[in-house]
Amino acid sequence: MTLTQLRYLLAIADSGLNITLAAEKVHATQPGLSKQLKQLEDELGFILFTRGARSLESITPAGEKVIEHARILLAEANNIRAIAANLRRDNQGELHIATTHTQARYALPAALAALNRQFPNVAVHLTPGGDGESIASLARGDAEIAIISTAGNAPSAADLAIPLYRWDRVVLVSKQHELAKLDRPLTLADIAKFPLVSYESTREPESSLRQAFSKAGLEMSIAVTARDADLIKTYVRAGFGVGVLAEMAITPEDSDLVAIPADNLLPRCTAWLLLRRDRVLRDYTQALITRLLPQLHALELQRAISDGETLKVNPLHWRDIARPGAIGDFEI
Amino acid sequence: MTLTQLRYLLAIADSGLNITLAAEKVHATQPGLSKQLKQLEDELGFILFTRGARSLESITPAGEKVIEHARILLAEANNIRAIAANLRRDNQGELHIATTHTQARYALPAALAALNRQFPNVAVHLTPGGDGESIASLARGDAEIAIISTAGNAPSAADLAIPLYRWDRVVLVSKQHELAKLDRPLTLADIAKFPLVSYESTREPESSLRQAFSKAGLEMSIAVTARDADLIKTYVRAGFGVGVLAEMAITPEDSDLVAIPADNLLPRCTAWLLLRRDRVLRDYTQALITRLLPQLHALELQRAISDGETLKVNPLHWRDIARPGAIGDFEI
DNA sequence: TACAGTTACGGACCGCGTAAGCATA
DNA sequence: TATGCTTACGCGGTCCGTAACTGTA
Questions:
Q1: How, if at all, do strands A242-246 and B145-150 pair?
Q2: A44, A81, B16, B174: which sits with the fewest CB atoms below 10 Å from its CB?
Q3: Is residue B132 classed as helix, strand or coil in its secondary structure?
């Protein structure tokens, strides 16, 4: 059993059991992987994959177990390499962030730009997806950090969640819309009269928007859902209905529309930074976190990761940190 | 970085930084380890040990971190090998049990004998030690299972504790001793009049024996402490004082002495089986556990290990399972 | 001088890539 | 016939053990 064999094994498993594809991913030849896989199977004494005549058919139950442990093993190998790279002040590498479009588009750019100035050789990969997908990315080890939002407490799925900031939703309509001309505070009942344009997550029954309406005994009708705040704006402009989206997504370019704060109508949300305790952070990852959370001391973060302490962070509200750039946008 | 290099690294760290000794442990030559260590250091880009002229002096802080992760990594490699060995029905191997002398001498022999009948090629290693040492053995990975006792709840240090059985203490005196002739139930005050012969753990301030006395407002004086129940008996016979020890340690051979139950004087103890969730159990280890705990279903154990469920076991009392042989002594 | 770690050297092994083989759809 | 895994083969690197070297107590 060698590290190479296990790396190949995971590459094959993660390539849909296609050895040729896996070989490309690990920059090796297909016969090389084929042979190493066979050797590993010989050493363990059982097959890891069932074979069809033409290709690998499926992972055996024992193979699943082995893969599970191999993932931890290789993750530890990466941890050791991360320790070494940090110590060498080797500031190049990759950083995978799993998050929603809104975070990536409106909240993170400033922090990532600053990170790029400080660490020009770090390649940042943004993996867009819903909250569940982001958590899964983190769990699979594809992403080092995930940023998601909840309307309540920290998501239970991740083992270390740090509150980044709080935010509220806004109702977005055209200037001519009757909701824009109301001379009294907006109510849910007002909104319920129009079809909604909102995030894809609204389709889920646990959606806080959906729950707010049902709690108020109101029916809601959805015109369009999208993952993308820009798409929501587009469809609001096109007159599909009333937009409900995150306040972060409102920029000066949207002055043709009217964004009505919905603080009092819909529950306040918290954006969370999710980490894995069992992964060593590269220096630049930690730099990004401290940039996102200046009030969090680097030592506190270290302790939270290693000693399993729960972090006591009192996150600011978005409107208190937002500037044209967004969070993290201060001089180096 | 290879598995071999990391294995060598740990061997050196665990041999007091003596490469020659480490080389013997891993059945390799000293220059081999020396060179692999150097290669690992070259690859990581920093030294793992500070060198004196004549020998390795100390582990560098970075080295400590690397070693920590290397332990997890190699443990996972062993997990994969364990999965393979179980699947191959390869019923040979080793089983390290960290426990107290009393458990090893009086509670376990029957179960271990039965285990040996079922798995003749398994070498069982009993590592005697106090409760703290046993927990440390388990944590370090030297032992697969630990068996310790507490007077209260499950020890918090281990991540999976299963109650094995409950037991009480007895007061042990010679037949001529005045406590043997009392025509009323024994009290703590009676015992307090004599110097005690008991376990080494009695020296600790948290000792349940010590606490029972201080709660009753009584002073206790200790004549002899030992780890070994046989030694306690010996010193009781020699007239050093009154013995206080586990009921399991009383055998028919002790009929020259009088063992007075102390159920009502001292808190009842629980013997716990301690496991690590992150270690794959060999079939024979699981067989031992089911032998020690027939009421625990094997599937329940599996679930407890993998899913982190808390086990609901209602342990029997020692006197209800004890026979001349001791627990686990039933036909195969 | 004895001991411990490092360097030097030669043989065996092993992993890799190229190329050929083989079995399907 | 195209695809994808397996087997064959030769090269190069690497790991290992023996042996010599170096540097203290």
A1: unpaired
A2: B16
A3: helix
Do residues A306 and A159 make contact, with C-beta atoms less than 8 angstroms apart? no
Say yes or no for a CB contact (<8 Å) between B62 and A79.
Answer: no
Q: What are phi and psi of A255, to 5 degrees?
A: -70, -10
Residue in the block written with tokens 């159990």: B281
The residue in chain A having the minimum alpha-carbon distance to the alpha carbon of residue B2 is A3
Quote the pTM value. Answer: 0.88
From the CB of residue B288, how many other CB atoms can be counted at a distance below 10 Å?
A: 27
CA pair distance A232, A261, nearest whole angstrom? 16
Least confident of A118-127, A147-156, A197-206: A147-156
Measured distance CA(A236)–CA(A197) in Å, rounded: 7
Q: How far, in whole angstroms, is CA B331 from its chain's centroid?
A: 26
Protein residues closer than 7 Å by CB to strand C:
A 2, 4, 27-29, 31-32, 35-36, 39, 52-54; B 17-20, 30-31, 34-35, 37-38, 51, 54-56
Confidence of residue A84 (pLDDT cuts 50, 70, 90): very high
Domains present along chain A, CATH in parentheses = 3-85 (1.10.10.10), 93-165+269-330 (3.40.190.10), 169-261 (3.40.190.10)
Which amino acid is it at B49? Answer: F
